[in-house]
Amino acid sequence: MSGVPISISGRMNQVQIVPRTCVPLYHKPAPRYVKCGATITPLRQIGSARYRRGMERGYLSSGDVIVACATPPGAGALALVRLSGPGSLDLLAGRFSRPLAIRDAPGHSVVYGRILDASGSTADEVTVSVFRSPRSYTGEDSADIVCHGSAVVVDAVLSACESAGARKALPGEFSFRAFANGKMDLARAEAVAELARARSSEARADALSRLAGSLSRDISSIRSAMLEVLAAVEVRLDYGEDEVDGDLSAEEGKLTSLRGRLDGLASSWRVGRLVDQGAVVAVAGRTNAGKSSLFNRLLREERSIVSDVHGTTRDYIEAVVDLGGVPVRLFDTAGLRESADPVEAEGVRRSRLVLEGADVVLYLADGTAGLAPGEDPSAEPALAGKTVIRVWTKVDLPDAKDAPAGWLPFSSLTGEGIGTLCDAILDGFGILGETGGHGTRIASERHRRLIESSGCSLGEAMEALSSGLPLDAVALDLREALDALGELLGEGLGDGILETIFSGFCVGK
Ligand SMILES: Nc1nc2c(ncn2[C@@H]2O[C@H](COP(=O)(O)OP(=O)(O)OP(=O)(O)O)[C@@H](O)[C@H]2O)c(=O)[nH]1
Ligand SMILES: [Mg+2]
Fold first, then answer.
1. In this structure, is residue 404 part of a structural domain?
2. pTM
3. How far is the CA of 414 from the centre of ligand 2 (A)?
4. pLDDT tens digit string along 399-445?
5. For strand 279-285 and strand 360-366, is the pairing parallel, antiparallel, or unpaired?
């Protein structure tokens, strides 16, 4: 191939190099194309071949040593300063009381000593975990320095490293390097950030599963199966349908099942997003219905003022609570009534805005007073189209009436009905029966968009196939479906998009 200009063919297979003259979209020499196209490129090749070049052009240059504190700012017993890059261990040795101990340390070993500043004075006593390329998080030589946890100590250790030539790492730059060096695909790198910000046990479990590769494996297996179908289509394109045995009905069946898998992943986003980012639950109802009492009961603290005076809560109050593993932003609101008092009326207006933005609304009615004439949550404009759970409160009181059908009996005083209420809320999120033993879930908007786009292209391929359109069109749709999945794993993305994704990570990750 020497002397022939080359290009990287479609995004489906990143490192497949073909003469530029062969590039036209669906007229490739079949035997070679099918053979190469049916192979999934190892991640290592994707990272090193393409993105290293991209990085050198971008603001995240890969040749230098980077340093950052990986633990949160503020006082703590210990802090972790992370150093990575070619030559990072030599650089550290130059600022260490026992330079040979660092230089000679094997990978995955711990060295004790002192970090020295530029003038040779001790910055801190530390332990250093030494990692050698490629067996490190970033794939480069790197060191995790555990120092004492005060901000001034961390600054002194950082300054010592910077004075030796390291530069401050950008947000997510360690993970970017891990991705660029083929240590993980983009979906797994994103899971690192999700894990770092996980706010509930469910979010942690989901992120851990994605970090372990559950999503990447699902996507890769869908992609392999799609490539097989594409190969079958391409063979017929190149040799003519008459010259190839059998028809494509088996492939049609495969596409239907792949579409189902993609739809399943896409629909897991609703719950995945709630688990990752939290859900909004608002408590609504007329004044004195028992809203603040229920709010406090769910929080297990006396947060909102409770009194028998109608209109006690005048503004909305927000708190975060873990409900069945889901982080929930819970809102107590002002009782819904017409008021001549401008302050209360403003509180009601704001509360209605909260209701409009809620994922689930608990609408409370005082079980002792019963429903007021004309009281009907489905007639409340702020609740239109909402998931509304009707709660019949104060059922511990002797004068409480029986809960009407569709209303959940509840007492903030005794806790009666709280289990059913929590289940109803989770059910409202679509989570009940999902927790525990669920398959892979996605939480990222980017993943949802790409999976939906892939499913959409696959649907078009199926339609083209069943309606007897030329196979060229089927192949084109299949490639688009494959491209979207490749993009999810980080293939074919420009520097700008990658930098945007990684800049959302914490510094030190
Ligand atoms: N026995 C009993 N009393 C309750 C219960 N829930 C609320 N109450 C009483 O009902 C009165 C009103 O309760 P709140 O929680 O302040 O009602 P609210 O809906 O927040 O009222 P506003 O803020 O005025 O809209 C208080 O005296 C509470 O102690 C309950 O489950 N059992
Ligand atoms: Mg209240």
1. yes
2. 0.68
3. 18
4. 999 999 999 999 999 999 999 999 999 888 876 555 444 578 898 89
5. parallel
